[in-house]
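sry for the spam today, last one i promise. struct tokens for design, 179 residues
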């Protein structure tokens, strides 16, 4: 799919929800030069990890980035990142700081031995597998203020859209038409 067509197809999912903000949750470990991209394009963004990070940790940390239609950063993330598991997209009426507080609670989970483990929910390979296994309470918790999660499918020519309707997870698949 030509880059412009992909950007328009994903953008329709992200920017056509009334009274909502679009965000990307990006994995610094998967996105080459993410910090450079954030610095160059200057979108509003926050690191999901707490505290002042050492440079090597800041480079691989997850970042919450507010997206804007027709913005160079938005185009870069969609055109370069789609199919490369750079992250997930969330649409919500919440603002950047509120969404950060919500998402930070999912960064660690308790392992079988009771020790904390990082939970890379922002990797589309993880979230698209994990969400369908959640019960109603877990699904409500993961969604919180989020109206819609968008991500690439296992086949990057498939866009996945997850919504919560009356406490039930709804998954829609859209085949991205190749030109």
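last one done:
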């Amino acid at each position: 799919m030509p880059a412009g067509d992909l950007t328009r197809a994903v953008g329709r999912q992200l920017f056509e929800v009334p009274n909502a903000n679009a965000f990307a949750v990006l994995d610094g470990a998967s996105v080459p030069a993410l910090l450079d991209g954030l610095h160059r394009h200057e979108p509003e963004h926050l690191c999901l990890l707490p505290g002042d990070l050492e440079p090597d940790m800041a480079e691989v940390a997850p970042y919450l980035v507010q997206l804007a239609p027709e913005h160079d950063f938005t185009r870069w993330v969609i055109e370069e990142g789609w199919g490369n598991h750079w992250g997930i997209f969330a649409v919500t009426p919440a603002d950047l700081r509120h969404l950060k507080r919500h998402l930070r609670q999912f960064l660690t989970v308790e392992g079988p031995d009771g020790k904390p483990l990082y939970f890379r929910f922002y990797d589309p390979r993880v979230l698209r597998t994990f969400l369908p296994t959640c019960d109603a309470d877990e699904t409500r918790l993961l969604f919180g203020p989020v109206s819609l999660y968008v991500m690439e499918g296992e086949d990057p020519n498939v866009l996945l859209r997850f919504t919560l309707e009356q406490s039930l997870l709804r998954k829609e698949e859209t085949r991205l038409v190749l030109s």
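The chain has one domain: 3-175. ok im logging off now
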